[in-house]
């Protein structure tokens, strides 16, 4: 490990703000060479190159100049052990499938596998055909409190799980709009005139109404109740509120005569989704990105013996909590049940994004390649979690009708075993 010829050859497609986080984590490792990067934005590329120069590592090959330049990257001489994709959502499917067709056996993609339900099927089928691993980089599965609760779930403290909640409750108004230069805080431009996510993410709020970003909430929940591994999502329905927040934000920052004040946003400010599971659990998810509010993923894990809620930082375990009917400070429990992964690697997480959890998602991808084993989150997980978006759009379109989940595993969910974070290795 560490010698030049044993280092993994990794490429990154998309070195925007998120891709640069992953780049930093990879540059920090001595078991990886970032051999190629691709982007179409000069400013993002120069930020990435600056980070590489600062790290003292060798400058990778740079592919740019066209939205199809990534195809050349995949054909590079010398091959690739893995590809990491951190581009806008609509590029994930073609880039994943392109990587698989180029013979790459490990593909990591940022969250959201595809746009339509068919996209999700296409990626699953391509991964099966090429016998390759597609891992979605769902980092919240590795959040310290989320993992401590996983530890508690697995040790039976909450009893049998009954109901779970989560979501994406994040005021994105300063992400969806900016002045084309600074990512946060100024301006009400989007599309061509926007920078980073304002360039592309906001269009999805114009044209789509559904839970556009389900994976940070559903990923941890799916681990708690073993989705695709003894359990599965059966049905879903979604409800949407009216859309006010984005329009109001534009008027407040740019005035009533700003051209964007005429844009009709389709995305309801709050989209609420309910999911029914084969194991008899229900899930409630909320997508809430257009209104003023502090960040919260709103987790609730409730079983026959107790409950965790992250908003009030409380845990209650019947018979063990200090007083009946009263919350314990969750910290006491979370410290006691700290997951072995965090206990082992917390030093390495220092400086990694989102409170350290970003370290683990990259670590697990890289360690899986080194060991030539399946990634701890696989293409079936990615498809089931991401499919919530098109299914919620469909439910809303049909007047909140309940719609069925496809079974991407083709019945294998009954036999597959949990593999996520079973040890302290990765
Ligand atoms: N897991 C997390 O915590 C987290 C946080 C932020 C973003 N994300 C996800 O990461 C992904 C990227 O988001 P971001 O914030 O970095 O956005 P961004 O706009 O900053 O970066 C996207 C990059 O992709 C590049 N790009 C677009 N089309 C391309 C093409 N055809 N070929 C090559 N490069 C292309 C853009 O030029 C840009 O640099 C999204 O899926 C987003 O949802 C996840």
Explain the overall architecture:
This protein is of the alpha/beta class and 426 residues long. 34% of the residues lie in helices and 18% in strands. It is built from 15 helices and 15 strands. The mean pLDDT is 97. It binds nicotinamide-adenine-dinucleotide. Nicotinamide-adenine-dinucleotide binds next to helix 1 and helix 4.
Write a compact overview of the structure shown.
The protein has 426 residues and is an alpha/beta fold. It has helices at 17-27, 42-55, 69-74, 89-101, 117-129, 144-154, 173-176, 201-207, 215-224, 245-254, 330-336, 340-345, 357-371, 379-386, 388-397, and strands spanning 8-13, 32-38, 61-63, 82-85, 106-109, 133-136, 161-169, 233-240, 270-277, 282-288, 300-303, 306-309, 314-317, 328-329, 403-404.
Q: What's the mean pLDDT score?
A: 97
Number of strands: 15
Task: Please count the helical segments.
Answer: 15
Assign the structural class, choosing from mainly alpha, mainly beta, alpha/beta, alpha+beta, or little secondary structure.
Answer: alpha/beta
Q: Any idea what the radius of gyration is?
A: 21 Å
**Biggest β-sheet: strands ordered side by side in the sheet:** 14-13-12-11-7-10-9-8-15
What is the rounded distance between the termini? 16 Å
Order of helices and strands: EHEHEHEHEHEHEHHHEHEEEEEEHHHHHE
Rough outline: globular
Largest sheet: 9 strands, mixed
Bound compounds, please? nicotinamide-adenine-dinucleotide
Helix coverage percent of residues? 25-40%
Uncertain runs are none
Strand content: 15-25%
Q: Topology, please?
A:
Blueprint: E1 8-13, H1 17-27, E2 32-38, H2 42-55, E3 61-63, H3 69-74, E4 82-85, H4 89-101, E5 106-109, H5 117-129, E6 133-136, H6 144-154, E7 161-169, H7 173-176, H8 201-207, H9 215-224, E8 233-240, H10 245-254, E9 270-277, E10 282-288, E11 300-303, E12 306-309, E13 314-317, E14 328-329, H11 330-336, H12 340-345, H13 357-371, H14 379-386, H15 388-397, E15 403-404
Parallel strand pairs: 1-2, 1-4, 2-3, 4-5, 5-6, 7-10
Antiparallel strand pairs: 7-11, 8-9, 8-15, 9-10, 11-12, 12-13, 13-14
